[in-house]
Design the sequence.
């Protein structure tokens, strides 16, 4: 090799090494340390933790579910045991959500409480890797300290299930999208404490719950619905208009209509959900939300009532082309 080429190669290797070191330092500086905390388990925390777990519908991603049945109920004994999403719902790769039961080998049994809090609130795996944002930690960053601790207490009390879940895989384009997003998200401020919402102030409490329940993620930022969900290649379900518009929203619903709608799914939660064709499936987490208590559902309703009415006609569930859902 001529001397000049050798120099250039050496120079490039040097630059590469410096960049790698700088990147390492960047990762180190932008990975918050897990807090050194011990979360006490109490009956009150377990109850509240269950509410937060259902509202945040952790089951939808982290529990092994039966997608042949209405709303994909958890297979008994598999709460938090991990899930590989059915390929028909994920054409761009394989999404799997890890086992979050206390199993020490395949779950998070060996994690410290601080590491669990950091994963849920800030989106870091145990070793400091940033989790892909399919895990809604940006939403969970709004959980109050007490709600987050209750959630962790609830997770700790789940029966440990030994179930190894493979990693998520994406095609190149999606992978780059995530890499860029994860790099940028490291520059954001790390949230380390969130005050308790006032449970007696219905509208702000409802706003808090709606955020944790990710209603806007599916019903749109202004809650007027219209988002499409493909339950099979031939079936599309469209999210409903939840604004107080009289003609196209839920303006004509009373508070008890709203409560009853959620409660009506409780029999599926207690007795088991029926087997349904893809056409009758819905992504709306009814089986989790139906377990919420009245004060929470009432606060959610009160908050939705304060949203501006938006006229957007969404055909009711069961009347979309190819959708034969008759269950409601
Ligand atoms: C929309 C789907 C989704 C929901 C809802 C969701 N998660 Fe996740 N979660 C994921 C995915 C996917 C990962 C893996 C991300 C990765 O490996 O980069 C994950 C990772 C985690 C991890 C890290 C586990 C590990 O082994 O690295 C924890 C802990 C966790 N989630 C807890 C929760 C809790 C608690 C809830 C409910 C409050 C929840 N998640 C709701 C999709 C979800
Ligand atoms: C994963 C997506 C998803 C999330 C999250 C979600 N929804 Fe839905 N929701 C839907 C879809 C799709 C429908 C229409 C199909 C059905 O009724 O099951 C729907 C229907 C509804 C209905 C029935 C409306 C009607 O006119 O019949 C109500 C009420 C509702 N959602 C409220 C909520 C609330 C409140 C939240 C948050 C706490 C929420 N949803 C979160 C997807 C979602």
Sequence:
């Amino acid at each position: 090799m001529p001397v000049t080429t050798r120099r250039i190669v050496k120079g490039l290797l040097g630059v590469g090494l410096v960049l790698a070191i700088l990147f390492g330092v960047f990762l180190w500086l932008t990975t918050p340390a897990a807090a050194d905390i011990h979360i006490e388990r109490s009956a009150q925390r377990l109850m509240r933790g269950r509410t937060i777990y259902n509202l945040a519908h952790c089951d939808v991603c982290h529990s092994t579910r039966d997608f042949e049945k209405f709303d994909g109920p958890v297979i008994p004994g598999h709460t938090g045991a991990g899930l590989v999403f059915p390929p028909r719902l994920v054409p761009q790769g394989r999404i799997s959500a890890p086992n979050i039961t206390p199993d020490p080998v395949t779950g998070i049994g060996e994690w410290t409480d601080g590491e669990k809090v950091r994963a849920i609130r800030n989106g870091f795996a145990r070793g400091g890797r940033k989790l892909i944002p399919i895990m809604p930690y940006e939403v969970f960053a709004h959980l109050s300290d007490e709600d987050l601790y209750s959630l962790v207490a609830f997770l700790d009390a789940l029966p440990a299930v030994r179930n190894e879940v493979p990693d998520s895989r994406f095609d190149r384009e999606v992978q780059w999208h995530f890499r860029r997003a994860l790099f940028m998200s490291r520059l954001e401020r790390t949230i380390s404490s969130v005050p308790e919402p006032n449970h007696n102030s219905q509208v702000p409490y409802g706003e808090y719950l709606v955020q944790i329940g990710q209603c806007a993620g599916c019903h749109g930022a202004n809650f007027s619905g219209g988002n499409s969900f493909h339950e099979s290649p031939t079936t599309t379900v469209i999210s409903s208009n939840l604004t107080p518009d009289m003609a196209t929203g839920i303006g004509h619903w009373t508070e008890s209509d709203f409560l009853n709608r959620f409660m009506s799914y409780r029999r599926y939660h207690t007795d088991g959900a029926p087997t349904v064709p893809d056409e009758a499936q819905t992504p709306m987490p009814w089986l989790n939300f139906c377990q919420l208590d009245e004060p929470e559902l009432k606060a959610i309703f009160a908050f939705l009532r304060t949203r501006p009415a938006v006229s957007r006609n969404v055909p009711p569930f069961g009347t979309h082309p190819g959708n034969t859902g008759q269950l409601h």
About this structure: The pocket of heme C (ligand 1) is lined by residues 56-58, 60-62, 95, 97-98, 100, 108, 116, 119-120, 125, 131-132, 134-136, 140, 151, 155, 168 (CB under 6 Å). The CA atoms of residues 87 and 326 lie 26 Å apart. Confidence is low (pLDDT under 50) at residues 321-328.
